Amino acid sequence: MTHHARDAHGVRRSGDSGDSAVSYVVHPIGYVASPLVSRDMAPKQGDEGAPDAWLVFDEGVRAGLRDLRPGAEVLLLTWLDRASRDVLAVRPRDDPARPLTGVFSTRSPDRPNPVGLHRVSIVSIDGTRVRVRDLEALDGTPIVDVKPVLDSVGDR
Amino acid sequence: MTHHARDAHGVRRSGDSGDSAVSYVVHPIGYVASPLVSRDMAPKQGDEGAPDAWLVFDEGVRAGLRDLRPGAEVLLLTWLDRASRDVLAVRPRDDPARPLTGVFSTRSPDRPNPVGLHRVSIVSIDGTRVRVRDLEALDGTPIVDVKPVLDSVGDR
What is the pLDDT averaged over residues B63-83? Predict the structure, then answer.
């Protein structure tokens, strides 16, 4: 496969030896409201003692929420706005005994594009506010997207 | 939980009734090189007959890739740059017999922030080029992130 200097939409891209030249803008669709207000308080993963939280969606995306139901498991994508974007290797779980590991082999929030991925269950829905179980994201974290879990072809 | 007018970093946010005012920039870290060049050709999910593809990473993120290994299953996050961002409801799998469904209950690429989520296996690695199995993303799709699959606490 050769690399195309321009993609199908005519957007300029760099060659293999350089960095990708195009960037994209994430417009958050809401935010997390949670008792967790600092990274020190947050568990490493949602099923390690994270509290329930509210997903507070913008009015403008209400039509996209209409088929969410209590009891459903969903994947929540967030923008980890307090992460550091210039980190490429970390010690997993902040454990000094563990070797430095490339960030793409870890779930560290610190990474070039700090998109958080969280599997949560919906507890209840009140208009554009969705209550979820076991979310380790911090209070105020912007919401990027919500997707259904695909566990089997039958779910699609 | 009350809503904060400003978060811990002093970034302005809108109130509950408005839309989130802050935006974030995704800087792609590479792109997909694939025989799939149009949405018509692409399967709906990677395990439905998608081809193998190369993930071509930018030189600047090489240090983040160092612990990826052939045989590993990873989650690939992409920016679905040919998607429509103003769509909030779709008919799943483009099937006219299915009811209009809110996009956050579907895996449609058309959604406000078109981040693609793909579970792929690594076949081989050649420097900053990573060969993966069963990827339904189109040729030229920008790469946002790579994360390990977390199937059990032991994997973390």
Answer: 97
3-state secondary structure of B27: coil
In this prediction, residues B6-24 reach a mean pLDDT of 53
More confident residue, A6 or A101: A101
Q: What angle do CA A55, B116, B138 make, to 5 degrees?
A: 165
* Tokens at B84, concatenated: 């429509």
B102, A66 Cβ separation under 8 angstroms: yes
Query: B103: helix, coil or strand?
Result: helix
**Type of residue at B28:** P
ipTM of this complex prediction, to 2 decimal places: 0.84
> Mutation test of the interface with chain B: which of A13, A23, A24, choosing the one with the most B Cβ atoms within 10 A?
A24
Distance CA A28, CA A76 (A): 12
- State the number of CA atoms in the 13 A half-sphere of B36 facing the CB: 22
Residue B15 has pLDDT above 80, yes or no: no
pLDDT above 80: residue B18 = no
Name the phi and psi angles at A28, rounded to 5. Answer: -55, 145
Work out the end-to-end distance of chain B between its first and last CA atoms, rounded to an integer number of angstroms. 31
Taking only residues 67 to 106 of chain A, the set having a beta carbon closer than 8 angstroms to any beta carbon of chain B reads 67-68, 72, 74-75, 77, 79, 81-82, 88-89, 92-93, 101-106
Contact A147, B117 (CB under 8 A): yes
The CA-atom distances, in angstroms, between B86 and each of A6, A12, A60, B17, B78 are 25, 24, 10, 20, 18
Cβ pair B73, B146 in contact under 8 A: no
With residue A37 as reference, give the H or E element that holds it. none
Strand partners, A117: A77
State which H helix or E strand residue A31 sits in: strand A30-33
